[in-house]
Batch of 2 targets.
Target 1
Amino acid sequence: MIRLLADPLRARIVELLAGEALCTCHLVAETGAKQTNISNHLRQLRQAGLVTTEPCGRFTYYRLNPGALQAAADHLTALAERARSHSQSRRPC
Amino acid sequence: MIRLLADPLRARIVELLAGEALCTCHLVAETGAKQTNISNHLRQLRQAGLVTTEPCGRFTYYRLNPGALQAAADHLTALAERARSHSQSRRPC
DNA sequence: GAATCACATCAGCCTCAACTGATATCATTC
DNA sequence: GAATGATATCAGTTGAGGCTGATGTGATTC
């Protein structure tokens, strides 16, 4: 999940989709990447459940799944909280 | 930053450090990875400000920086929130 | 139904980053 | 100060994954 957000192009796609639903052609235009490349990344995001698709004629709209993103955010928040509460403990050697 | 958390071994290190401060030998023992490998990853985490070091004799303790982690979490939360508030908008083709 | 457009899939290339072995450094112990 | 133990650095190798070109599929238009 976080692995997916690590790639710069995928991160850009996610950022764009956070603002509005877009179809592949929009993403190609916005990022300047090849259609094949975008499509491959979208498949990964789709398979991970991070985006959903809405077929619309010959277009395919992609929409960001806020829940999946929030789950990742919550995991990091929990880790940070855990670190704060154990900020003094230290395992002896 | 999120790129750093994407690697499985680095993610494991961060998780371990969230519980308590550990020195390199602990991390080597816990993960089963080679010392060289752990040390390389720790350098990246250090350079990114995700962990801080506390030299203690010939040991080096590593401690997780909650602020850096929280910043990443907040970024994802903001994206999720943005997606939720634009859940109906859709750019026409 | 032929042509065209939006998009998906596949196979191959190629780069980058993770892993390793050898070695250096610094502190501790004898 | 010689030996040892903990850690850092460096150069080389290798494998996973991102990118591309070619091609397939399904919907739309004429």
Target 2
Amino acid sequence: MIISIDVSNGLAIYDQIVRQIKFAVASGIILPGELVPSVREMAKQTAVNPNTVSRAYRELQSEGILEVVRGTGLQVSTGALKQCRKDRQGLIQERLRAVLKEAQQSQLEVDDIRQLIEAELARLNGKGTSK
Amino acid sequence: MIISIDVSNGLAIYDQIVRQIKFAVASGIILPGELVPSVREMAKQTAVNPNTVSRAYRELQSEGILEVVRGTGLQVSTGALKQCRKDRQGLIQERLRAVLKEAQQSQLEVDDIRQLIEAELARLNGKGTSK
Amino acid sequence: MIISIDVSNGLAIYDQIVRQIKFAVASGIILPGELVPSVREMAKQTAVNPNTVSRAYRELQSEGILEVVRGTGLQVSTGALKQCRKDRQGLIQERLRAVLKEAQQSQLEVDDIRQLIEAELARLNGKGTSK
Amino acid sequence: MIISIDVSNGLAIYDQIVRQIKFAVASGIILPGELVPSVREMAKQTAVNPNTVSRAYRELQSEGILEVVRGTGLQVSTGALKQCRKDRQGLIQERLRAVLKEAQQSQLEVDDIRQLIEAELARLNGKGTSK
DNA sequence: GTGGTCTAGACCACC
DNA sequence: GTGGTCTAGACCACG
């Protein structure tokens, strides 16, 4: 699992770690039962303050994504995969709703919105297949 | 023009003012050449410190949305309407692209995405017409 | 004499009036002994608050450019032409010095500066003659 | 980097800070990637309120000269050097053009202007070498 | 420790 | 009356 940090993108570093681990879990890159890198290890890898990694892990524990294995480290918990997928789905849905709502408030017709979306989907697919 | 502030939504107060004024300009609620409420007036209206309003107005000046008329107040500048509309459009497009991209990365099929979108659009329209 | 005011250029209105009258005197557009328009007249002409015109005239009186003719109005004083010319000269010289100094502080070589100047002079002359 | 404030020169304090930092960047006194003094540090150094320093830094951020490194400070951004140099050059050119234009409007012959300039350049150089 | 935001209250120039 | 600037002091999130 590779975590890459961008210090100057406005997002808190701990939050970048949280999101990327959730993403890794949702995508099956790291499976329930597997250990995440230790705080020190991750801190070295990402050149980040251990406090910050620790905070990210704490956050993930409180959300039930990670759980302590005494004397061993932190592992991805059993329900984490399903939860991360659902989170992801929910988050996407929420953001989709927000942007659609705003689009409508801006005098955009429903058909204009659909057109915009199809254009963007085509763009993404074009990029994806050509790669 | 009515500006409503929500102190506990995470967004900075000055930013809420900035956005709502841009929205008002983009929507034609306030036209180029018209004066925005004075700093003190707006501060009273929104129960916010005048400095905070001033900061929002300064931000809008530096973006070319507002301009000072010495001793008289701040007026919406000539190019503001077009600029705010374009900003708004660009912002929506960008956010749409981001969420669609993320949706695709989450193993959602294009048709699933379309279905989600239609559901959300229906929700919005239902809300709109029933109200 | 035509005075034109630009409310949104940052310069105080009264100052714009002061400068334009000095310019008119220096250029011989208005001669010593001639009356300037009355406060009310000028205020109407320029669509400016009479207080503001009054302030400009006061400024010009205190600099000795204008003088009261009791019951008649304000006239350009005898020494005004020479003084305005000198002022103008001095002001230009001062600004020239300031900009040259700054240019030198910015690692510009003397010859680069000369080149820049010649380019600008050519531009101005080109414009002037072609007009 | 030394920032010196003159409270009684008409220029706003925050603007003096902005200009001097731009100057320092343009001159290579402070390089892209380096941190500027912290808000509190700079405030102590210049005997100015931290808010005022903060405002100057905010201004520089919005112009893309500085960028935040969360919890660490503000660093000179990558493109800042080039940008500051260009700004500086453009500003000088603009002011040069303005003063030359005004000089010509004042019945000064081109050769008189050249003479004035050479005199000023000599003055500056004399000062520079004698120092 | 860092910057970001906000409030409160003051003074200024300009109209 | 208008905006612009500054100070003082407080609280927050982040590292």
